[in-house]
Each structure stands twice: as structure tokens, then as C-alpha cells.
Amino acid sequence: MRHLKRSYQNFILLTSVTVFLYGVYVIIYAWGLQNGIFKPAVTGHLPIAIDSAYAFMAMGISQACLIHRSALAAVVSRILSGCVLLWSTLLLIRDFTPVKIPLIFGMSPQTALCFTLLAISFIFIKSRKRKYIIQALLHFVTLIGSIAAIGHFLNIPEFYKMTFIPMAVYSAIGFVLLSVSASLMNYNLGITGLFTGNLIGNIMARKLFLQMLVAILVIGTLRIVAHRKEWLSPEFGSALLIIIFIVITLALIWKTSTTLNKIDDKKRIAVENFRIAIESAPYALVISDRDGKILSVNQQTKILYRYHEHELIGMPVMNIIPKKMHTDYVRRREQFFADNHIIKMGHNEDMLALRKDGTEFPIEIILVPIKTSTGPMCLASVIDITQRKNQEDTIKKQLIELQVKNEELEQFNYISSHDLQEPLRTVSNYISMLQEDFPDRIDGEIQEHLKTMGSAIDRMSHVVRSLLNFGKLGRKKKLVLTDCNKLVNDVAADLNSLIKNTGTEITVTCGLPEFYAYETELRQLFQNLISNAIKFRKSSISPDITISSRKLDGFYEFSVEDNGIGIHPKHSDSIFRIFHRLNSDEEYEGYGIGLANCKKIVEMHGGKIWVESEPGKGSTFKFTLLNFNK
Ligand code: ADP
């Protein structure tokens, strides 16, 4: 059984409880009469036969059990329905066959029939096969109950008597309640399905039925009352009834047709808007059937493929696909119809389309399954990516050129810095020779000049070496599984004396990741950042460095936070440029190459580096590294 809506479940439960309580009430009432508790004025007027009361109680519980999913509830429901079925069948045999059964109680035969049908329905209501028959039985019970109820309301004994014993009005209402609510168990079937659906026909049925029912009941009642009181002659009464009926029918038809017209109008506008949207779409839209026959195309399709519309309609889609792609396309189309899923083609592969003049162009296609009254269809959105492909090709070419240029530049840097070392060494040697060979001729002032020259050359040589290292950085890079915790510990060990002398505290907040990285370069990155954090410390407090990391989608983000002098935000980009320094040599020694190295290393790992800082409040250097593990 499908999952029942909450409101249906509540309604079923409510009717179950109502008929059950009604049965209880009758039994207590009967017991009260027997014991003389109730006044004699009502004596002998039980609202329904006592066995009907028991049967209603049983059927109330049985129906309530039906909405419970447990196996025990199902068994209880079947036992109770089975008992009612047995009893009512025996009564029917007694009433309609020559077989003599000594049963003293007696619900009316039509009541017994209704209980028989209801009990059978309850027993089989959850079976998959006989759903339609069960629904029909329930509808039949509703019909009998309704006829009897109307007979009681309008005082027409032929309607509620049916056989030799009349059906009580309460039984009639009980049957209508039980059969209608039980039919909600299979709410999409039969007449119940007509009222519970969400289509326009169902909505109209719900609206109209109630209005018609009220109108017919009111007119019918008036007609009978008028007849009984002899207000009108039978002919006049019938004629009046016909006229009123025609007027009411006309009013309902008018209401129905205006509602339907409004809906139709809205639908037409929606269809027209949809058509405009399809026609003005910037990509080709092609609808084809299962056999690959084109059924509908938009304006862009004609432009893209250079066909007239009448040529495209009815044409096999294969005509607009290059021959070399036919086998693959057929296979994927078949898969598409089998899976009934959206598929994309041409995103990570080359996909081509064929124009009328035989030329081909690159495309991307999305196939969307659509349902139609004539079966499943395929809506293909085709995007011409010629321009994008050309741009991609240009970018690719430029990238290669850039790479070559970059390599040339690195080579130049490497060679020139290498060559510069030589003359520097020569000058340095000559200074030493002068100092050693002519100690008597080099007096104080010359000695001072030579010293200044020597330290300038040292500095120059350091810069050239840094430049050389910068050029070499990553030349021998090797991707290895790197434990960042160990790496940071090693760096701290290398910087041990500096850390001790400055009273530096290094904290690693959470375990740093282990992942594939260029280990040597990564070590240099941490070394530069940690030694900068110590170097650019405030004179008043000892350095406090916090290192942490977090995992992002495809990346790791690291941060190295210090409590040093900080950096003005306006310098946050320039500090990563080579030889860019913010402080003088007297204050903080350096060559302005550390952060340039860091940037190069991070970019080597497919990441970014930046700083978040305020002067006087410390700096946090953050960088991301591609998670090569993924
Ligand atoms: P160097 O340290 O040799 O001067 P870097 O490239 O390492 O060169 O740094 C460039 C500049 O960025 C430094 O001169 C300094 O002004 C600034 N800087 C780097 N790290 C820090 C830091 N942790 N705190 C404050 N300033 C920093």
C-alpha cells in the first residue's frame, strides 16, 4: 500500500472511532433498558439491532487497525472482520435460503449484506491484485447506505426498507462513513480517485459534486414537501422542478465553463511564453523521438546547422552528426533512454556537429528526457563552442609561450648570477691580497676604505647568491609524502639557538596534515616565515608564534601568526616582491628575498599566499597548498 496522506489517516481514524463509540453507546443503552435504568418512554426503541452495534464496534476497530503498519494490527483487523463476515453470512443464509439457522438477533438483510461486503473489503484491502474489486465493493456499500439515508431523511420507506426489515438510519450513516473512509486506503482508485486527484478534472469534480448534491437534495426535498402538503398540483410541481433543475444545471455549467476557460487561457499564455523562450534561446534546441527522428527545432538550430525548418523536421538526428561519431552517439542515446537521466556530452571530450554544407563545428550537448503523450522524447540543447575553443587554443598557445619565456628568464637569471660571482670573487681576492702584500703601505684610512669595499662585496655576493638560489628554487623539486608536524619540528630545531636567545614560543594548535608536497621547498617556506616572525619582533615582548592548518575543498590552508611589529595593509602585496623591504638595514638585517621565495614555493604547490596584519598588532601569514592526495 502506498504511504497514506496524514489527513486521510486522520479521517479514517475519526470514522473508526465514531462507529466504534456508536456501537458502544447502543450496547450501554440496551443494557440500560434491560435493567430499567432508562425511562419507559423510550423502551423498545433501540436505534439499531444489537448485533449491528457489535458489528459496528468490530468494524471500527478493524478499520483503525488497517492504518497501523504492524503485523499484529493486520491480524487483529482480519480476525474482527472475519467474525463480522461469519455472522452476517449466517444471517443472509437464514434469510434467503431454506436452510434453518436458529439465530434470534436480526439486523436487516440489507444491513447484513453491507457488513458482508465491508468485511470482505477490509480483509482484502491491502492485497495488490484485487484492488479494483475491493474499491467497487466499497462504492456499492456507500450507494446502499446513501439510498437508505436519503430514504430516512425524506421519509420514503421504499428507499430504506429494501427488504422486509428496514435499515436503521444510523446503520446507513455508519456504512457511508466506513465505506468512504476505507476507500481512501486506495485513494487513487475508482470514484474516490476522481475526488482525490490533483488534476483539473479532479478539482472540478470536488467543487461540482458538493454543489450539485446540495442543490439536488434541497430541490428534491422541497418538491416532496410541496407534494405532501398539497401546495402544488403534481404537474405544476414537476414542471417547476424541471425548470429549477435546468436553471441550477445552467448555473453550474456556466461556472464550470468559465473556470475551464480561465485555466485554458492561462495554459495558452504559458505555452506561448514557453514557445517564445524556446525560440529566443541562445542555443539550439532539438526535440527528437526514440527512433532519433527530429520533431521540433528552434530558431537557433536553423542558424547553427544552416537548414530550413521544413528540412529539419522529420529528418534523422544522425544527419546533423558527423559519421565518425555515429556509433558512439547511438550507444549513448540508447543508454539515455534506458536510464531516463540527463546526460552531458562534449564537456570533457571533443564533440562535433555537422552543418548542411558538410562543415563541422565543436559543440556541447545536454540531453534531457521529456515525457509526452506519445512516449518518452529527448530534448537536446546544443551549444556551439567554436569561439570558446578558439579562445582556449589561443590561451594554451600563450601559456606555452609564457612558459618558454619564463624558463629562458630563469636560465638567464641563473647564468648571470653565476657569472657575477666570478668578478666579485676576483675583487674580493684582490682586496685580501692588497691587505696581505702591502701591510706597510696601507695606512688607517685606506684600510677603512678597503674594509667598506669588502663588506659591500660580501653583501653583493650574498644578493647574487640569493638570486641564484631563487632561480634554482624548485629545479629539483620532488613530490613526497610530507608530515608537516615533523617538518615544523625540524625547522624549530634548526633555529634552536635563535629561538632560545629570543625566548620565542612556538605553538602548533592542531595536528598539521601529512600530504604529498615538495618537502625541501616546504621546509624553506616554514623556515622563512618562522625566522621572519622572530626577526620582526617587538623589542618589548618575546615572540609568540602560532601555527595552524585546516582542510578546505581540495586544499590545505596554513597560517603562521606572530605578535611582532605588524605590517601596514598597503604593503600586503608588495612585500612578496623580490628585494622589497619595509625596514632599513640598521633596524632589521635582510635582503628582501625571503617572502618572494615563499610566494614561489606556494605557487609551485598550486596555492596562494597573503598576509593579514595591522602595524603594532602582529601579522598572520596565510597560504594554501593543493592537496595532491586527492
Ligand atoms: P627580509 O626579511 O629579508 O627583509 P622578506 O622578503 O622576508 O625580506 O620580507 C619582506 C619585508 O616584509 C620585510 O622587510 C618586512 O618589512 C616585512 N615582513 C616580513 N615578515 C614580517 C613579519 N613577520 N612581521 C612584520 N613584517 C614582516
From TrEMBL:
> Top enzyme class of this protein?
transferase
Q: Which Gene3D superfamilies match?
A: 1.10.287.130, Histidine kinase-like ATPase, C-terminal domain, PAS domain
- Top-level division of the source organism's lineage: Bacteria
Quote the catalytic activity from the record: ATP + protein L-histidine = ADP + protein N-phospho-L-histidine
Residue ranges spanning the membrane: these are 12-31, 37-59, 71-93, 99-125, 137-156, 168-187, 208-226, 238-254
* Its EC number(s): 2.7.13.3
Q: Which residues form the signal peptide?
A: none
What SUPFAM superfamilies does the record point to?
Answer: ATPase domain of HSP90 chaperone/DNA topoisomerase II/histidine kinase, Homodimeric domain of signal transducing histidine kinase, PYP-like sensor domain (PAS domain)
Q: Which SMART domains match?
A: HATPase_c, HisKA, PAS
- The chain positions of domain PAC read 347-397
Q: What is the protein name for this chain?
A: histidine kinase
**Lineage of this protein's species?**
Bacteria, Pseudomonadati, Bacteroidota, Flavobacteriia, Flavobacteriales
